[in-house]
Fold:
Amino acid sequence: MVMTKKDEIREKALKDLQQFHVLMLDGHFDFGNGYHGRLYLNPHQLFRYPSTIWRFAQDLIDVLPAEVRDQTEVVAGPATGGALLAHTVAGLLDSRRAIGGTPTMFAPFMVDTYRGPGLSRFYRQQVADKSVLIVDDVRNTGQTLARCATIVRSAGGTVIASAELYDRMEATTNAGAPNFALAEYKAPENYVADACPLCKSGVPITTF
Structure:
C-alpha cells in the first residue's frame, strides 16, 4: 500500500511524540486518580519548548484539508494546552496566506472547574458569524471539544472542524463537525489500582 504525504506526516509525528517523551508507551503509570496504565501523555513536555509546539502545529496544519485551512477565520482552543496550540496554529495559517488578507483570529476558552470551558464576552463577540476551527492537544472522550463547539455555536459562530495533535481513539462524542488528528494511537486498557496486573507482576511505577 502506497503511503500518502499525509500518512507519512502522521507516522513521523507519532514517532516524534515518543521521541520528545510526550507520548510515553509501555510504562507503568499511576495517574493519581485510582487508576494505573501503560500509556501516559505528558503535555508539559510538548509545551516546554516553543519550537516543539511550532513543529507539531505545522504538521497538524499539513494534514488538514485545504478547505478547512482556507475557510478558517478563528482558531479556538481550551486552556491551557489547546489555547497555546490554537494561538500557534492561527499564526502559522496566516504565514501561508497572501499578505494583505484578513488575519486569522485566536480565541481561548476559559476553563471552570465545575462548568468546564467557556468564552468571555469579548471572545463570544469575536467568533460571531465566523468560521471556527477548534483545536486541542489531545482528544480523550471528545467531550471537551464537543462542549467547546456548543459554546461557539451559541455565540453565533460556525464550527467547520475540530483537530488535535493526538487522538487516543476512545472518543464517545464529537463536535458535530469533521475531526482531524495529527497522530492516532489506541490507548491500552487502564486498571483500577488495587487490581493492577502490572503491580501484581512487580513492575515498578514509571517515574519521569
Notes: Residues 72 and 131 are 5 Å apart (CA to CA). The two ends are 38 Å apart (CA to CA). Helices lie at 5-19, 43-46, 50-63, 66-71, 81-95, 121-127, 143-154, 197-200.
